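During the first year of the project, the team set up a workflow for recording each protein of interest as an amino acid sequence followed immediately by a discrete structure-token representation. This format lets reviewers and collaborators read both layers of information side by side without switching files. As required by the reporting guidelines, we include two representative entries from the current panel. The first entry is reproduced here exactly as it appears in our internal archive.
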Amino acid sequence: MNKYLKFGTPVNPFLCYVDPAAAPAAVPAVPAVPAVPAVPAVPAVPATPPAAEPPATLAAVAAEGLEPTEAPLAPEINPETPPVVEGEEPPAAELTIPETADAYDFTLPDDTGLKDEKGDPFQFASDDPLVAKARALAVEHKMPQETLTAMMGVYVEAMKDAISTENASRTEASDTRRADALAELAYKDAAGKDISGEDRISKTLSGISELFGADDVATARDAMAGPKQVLFFEKIIKLANEGNIGKGGTSSADNLDGLSGEQKLHAIRSRSK
């Protein structure tokens, strides 16, 4: 210990004396701490882009008074309609099953193209036996109204096809009969000239017009159902040209003025007997 030091006396460095023998041994050097390897730099995390705003709906655009953009708008979803999962069939519409036979509706649209005999759009008659049978079957099998309506559409199309086929058949038969009649009426005149059936009918109608007037030509034309009727009118014209019948005859019985076409034909037939 420093013999010059006294307890409580301030230390004067110039008065300090340290006994070398009492000096403590040198403190061993602390080994150097190994260098810590540098920590690699952490890559910067990219900034998260701001969340895109949901696309506006037509209702939102209208409410904000904005003009629709070219970007597609999100479809508006009816909360009452269940969403359709991709790959699944959409839910079927609810069908209507009438409770009674009379509740079934057999009314057809006006645009089916099927006409009745008056030319009006075809409709099923309420007393049609076919309708009564259809009502009974519909009730028995609890048929939805939508199914019955679809079946009526199929029936109408079948009727249209049948009528078209029948009309085509009748037209073909009528054309065949007309061709046969015209061929039968064709002949050669005194000069050897060929007179076709059409020319013979035209000449006969001209004679009717001169004999009875132009108003009766249509009646005569409708009466010419075949070659026999054409020959009948030719006989009338021949008799008139010979002076046996015609306008202003010698007696009131021979005068055909003022008579209708049907009355004139009846008078001529009566006198020809």
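The second entry, processed by the same pipeline in the following quarter, appears below.
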Amino acid sequence: MNRTQFIIFISCLILLRLIIGVILAIYLPYISTDDYFRVHYALWWWEHPGFTSSYVWLPGHHYIYGIVIGLTKDTFLAPRLTSLAFFIGTALVALTIPNLKYLEKLVAVIWILFTPLLFVLASIPLSEPGMIFFLLSGISLLLNFRENKNPLTLLFSAICFMGAAMFRYEAWLSLILFYIYGRGITANHISKITQKLILMMPFFFPFVWIIFCFASQGKFMAFLFATTEDHYGQGSFIKSILSPTGITILLELILILAAIVYQVRKKGLQFFKDDLFLSFLVVTSIPTVIYSLAGALPSQYTERIFASILIIGSVFIGKTFYELKFKKIAAIIILGLFILFTSAGLNISLKTPLGIDKENVQISRWINSLYANKKLNKNEHVLISYYMPDSTALLVISNRIENVHLDAHGKTCTVQFLLPFEPTCPLPKWGKDVQIVIARKLTLEEDYISYLKWKRIKEFPNWLVYKRPANSVFPKKRTVKAPGIFDRF
């Protein structure tokens, strides 16, 4: 395969996958609570800039997705397309890995682009797309540093590894490997001390994060207890493997293992010493075991823990297919895998069920209809009472962040509009333009808005909708101090 043919093949594959990705980003349903909760925390960070907006979720996602959401005012398509951009970028990064032939790169890119798991993950705003992009970028730059000894290459590699560590905990162990491998190569034109400082740079974030966890939660590893403490509980490793997506992952893992065995039989034990990707494959697999033992597997869509393993494994697949003696048979197998993966990925994606409460989607659509049908104008606002995580779903899914707001939602405020207590900080100016309140049933907020004689206009299974009476004053002046139980933020 010559350079021109290679470029044409790659361009066509990326274009095809980009088209599929955009369609899935538009039509794929919310697959889990994390799907919209991630967006909420990113939006929260944009509105209240700081180190982080969550003590559990790493802030890399907040920073990038928060900027995108804040600039576009879009909580649905913009964050999904950001994930798609990270994913396509990961495939392009695979092209920069040194010492791979055109055919090896082509097979690796096909594997990355059409892995069934990533049909879904590349189209929703979770943290895996960012992590795998920065992780593979760091590995590729590290390998390029081995070739050119350029300290800038090492610096960019360090930045990428730190970026990966800011998205997912799975990337943390890879920092150790980065340090060990980078230390064995002497960079040009810089001192050994400078090189060591560059190699230590990615460790700065995990160190700060662990100290932050202890300062805010009293536990150095507070994130390991997050899934056992929330109301969803730990995800099931067995159920994830036995799911339709899990079955395709199992098949891919078997193929990766077979490719590694093939390489070992051909190159002997020297393969374990020379192949950097094998080391990274091992260290990105270890966290899965740790999560299982600590009860910290993702509570929803647990299959995503295999994302980095599948991406790194693409290199072994590419190398092995290139070295097969029967090129025509290898080409037929590659074509078969492409068709199989694409079919499986589309089938899994199109059959992915809604992973959140249908009522939240129903209410969000109803909110949108108020503006679409001109029952509310662009200067009128909707206020949702505090009830996590469902209130968050209504904010994100309605996708009108300039008009839809959550009560008791501010960096320093404990209460805002919908409780009979005095707020602890100035209320937003849009409060006087609130026309609709959506209150959770059997809550103090519902009692308060009913007490103000607002008119109930609609009822959902768990929520009541109130409309503001004409010529009424809102918010009312309150002088009662809030009890400590309402210190929600």
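For the second entry, the following points were noted during internal review. The chain has two domains: 3-350, 358-486. The CA atoms of residues 69 and 75 lie 6 Å apart. Both points are flagged for discussion at the upcoming steering committee meeting.
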